């Protein structure tokens, strides 16, 4: 056992280990030695555990120094992996982050937002993860560390590879989400549709980051849609068509939605999702652009 762990082992029925290291080096060393289930808020991990199939070893990352909190500098906003949605809601951030804050307020309930973390949302890689579209619209990157290979940084669009699938290796942890400084004046918005108003899995959600020039024309646009494909998608054709347009001239066509491939499921049909995405894109763009 490595030193400085708060460790609880119940060897009565199962050999259940719960490690809570307080520094990154110890955590990464631990991942070399045993197949731990990494856990932060546990709001995705615990509901997914099947009866009688509790992992035998948990590695809790919430006490690791430097993994919580938001810092700004060197052209980047660094959101520590274990930063909760409540931390994000409460943080003082530029208007470009309003869409991320709106999404944070939509993750489950206040109790879920108090425990659930930004990295947990990304690593769980659900198509309905509300954090992904606003982070794609912010051009976010994911910082990953391992004892063997040091640190690597990937675009979020490369990090999540499919339903419940990321590029993370077993000995790696996400250490932060990195967001490049956005052009001054960039604003953003997030739209979520569920089968009821609160505490609901998204049928479709959209985030838009918009910058207007001095004449009120769109100078920069990033739009991302979730729950309409295995992994949330940016809409490059829409983003390109928006450039130079005034807000009152914004239109969103079905052709703009071509990166999406929504499925039919209990929450909605693919056709319904596409209709919702088309409307949400317009609403998010107009709201982000409105002064
Ligand atoms: C009632 C309820 C409602 C919910 N509603 C929503 C919702 O509306 N929208 C939404 O998007 N989500 C929702 N969720 C899902 C969940 O709350 C979020 O995805 C949350 O952000 C997960 O964070 P966590 O810290 O709890 O993750 P955990 O459950 O601790 O971990 C999730 C995954 O990430 C991995 N992981 C965590 N941190 C790291 C790290 N630093 N490095 C490597 N791997 C890591 C874990 O191994 C696991 O695979 C809901 C969950 C519940 C229980």
Descriptive overview:
This protein has 291 residues and is an alpha+beta fold. The chain folds into three domains: 4-60; 70-180, Uridine Diphospho-n-acetylenolpyruvylglucosamine Reductase, domain 3 (2-Layer Sandwich), CATH 3.30.465; 187-289, CO dehydrogenase flavoprotein, C-terminal domain (Enolase-like, domain 1, 2-Layer Sandwich). Helices cover 27% and strands 26% of the residues. It contains ten helices and 15 strands. It has helices at 24-33, 45-48, 85-90, 98-106, 110-115, 118-124, 132-137, 156-159, 236-242, 270-289, and strands at residues 8-10, 16-19, 37-39, 57-60, 70-73, 76-80, 141-146, 150-155, 160-162, 165-166, 172-180, 187-193, 204-212, 218-226, 233-234. Strands 5-6-11-7-8 form a five-stranded antiparallel β-sheet. The protein has a four-stranded mixed β-sheet with strand order 1-2-4-3, with helices on one face. Strands 12-13-14-15 form a four-stranded antiparallel β-sheet. Strand 1 (8-10) and strand 2 form a beta hairpin. The protein starts with 7 loop residues before the first strand and ends with a helix. Mean pLDDT is 94; it is low at 1-6. The structure holds flavin-adenine dinucleotide. Flavin-adenine dinucleotide is lined by residues 37-45, 47, 61, 81, 106-108, 112, 115-117, 119-121, 123-124, 129-131, 168, 173-174.
Query: What is the overall silhouette?
Result: globular
Low-confidence stretches: 1-6
- Give the CATH level 1 class of the largest domain: Alpha Beta
CATH topology type of the largest domain = Uridine Diphospho-n-acetylenolpyruvylglucosamine Reductase, domain 3
Helical region count?
10
CATH architecture of the largest domain: 2-Layer Sandwich
Distance between the ends: 57 Å
**Share in helix:** 25-40%
Structural class based on helices, strands and sheet pairing: alpha+beta
Which ions, cofactors or small ligands are bound in this entry? flavin-adenine dinucleotide
Q: Sketch the topology as an H/E string, one letter per element.
A: EEHEHEEEHHHHHEEHEEEEEEEHH
Number of domains: 3
């Amino acid at each position: 056992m490595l030193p400085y762990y708060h460790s609880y082992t119940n060897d009565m029925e199962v050999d259940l280990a719960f490690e809570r290291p307080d520094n990154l080096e110890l955590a990464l060393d631990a991942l070399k030695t045993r197949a731990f289930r990494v856990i932060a808020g546990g709001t995705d991990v615990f509901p997914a555990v099947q009866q009688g199939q509790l992992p035998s070893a948990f590695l809790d990352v919430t006490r690791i120094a430097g993994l919580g909190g938001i810092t700004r500098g060197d052209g980047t906003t660094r959101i520590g992996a274990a930063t909760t949605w409540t931390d994000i809601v409460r943080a003082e951030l530029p208007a470009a982050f309003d869409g991320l804050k709106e999404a944070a307020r939509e993750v489950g309930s206040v109790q879920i937002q108090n425990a659930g973390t930004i990295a947990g949302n990304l690593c769980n890689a659900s198509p309905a993860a509300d954090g992904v579209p606003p982070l794609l619209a912010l051009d976010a990157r994911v910082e990953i560390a391992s004892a063997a290979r040091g640190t690597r940084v990937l675009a979020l669009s490369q990090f999540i590879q499919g339903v419940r699938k990321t590029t993370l290796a077993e000995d790696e942890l996400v250490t932060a989400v990195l967001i490049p400084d956005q052009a001054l004046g960039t604003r953003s918005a997030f739209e979520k549709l569920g089968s009821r108003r609160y505490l609901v899995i998204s049928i479709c959600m959209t985030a838009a980051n918009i910058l207007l020039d001095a004449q009120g024309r769109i100078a920069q646009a990033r739009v991302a849609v979730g729950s309409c494909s295995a992994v949330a998608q940016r809409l490059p054709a829409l983003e390109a068509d928006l450039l130079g347009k005034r807000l009152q001239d914004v239109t969103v066509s079905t052709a703009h939605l071509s990166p999406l491939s929504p499925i039919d499921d209990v929450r909605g049909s693919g056709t319904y999702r596409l209709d919702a995405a088309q409307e949400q894109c317009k609403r998010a763009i107009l709201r982000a652009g409105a002064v």
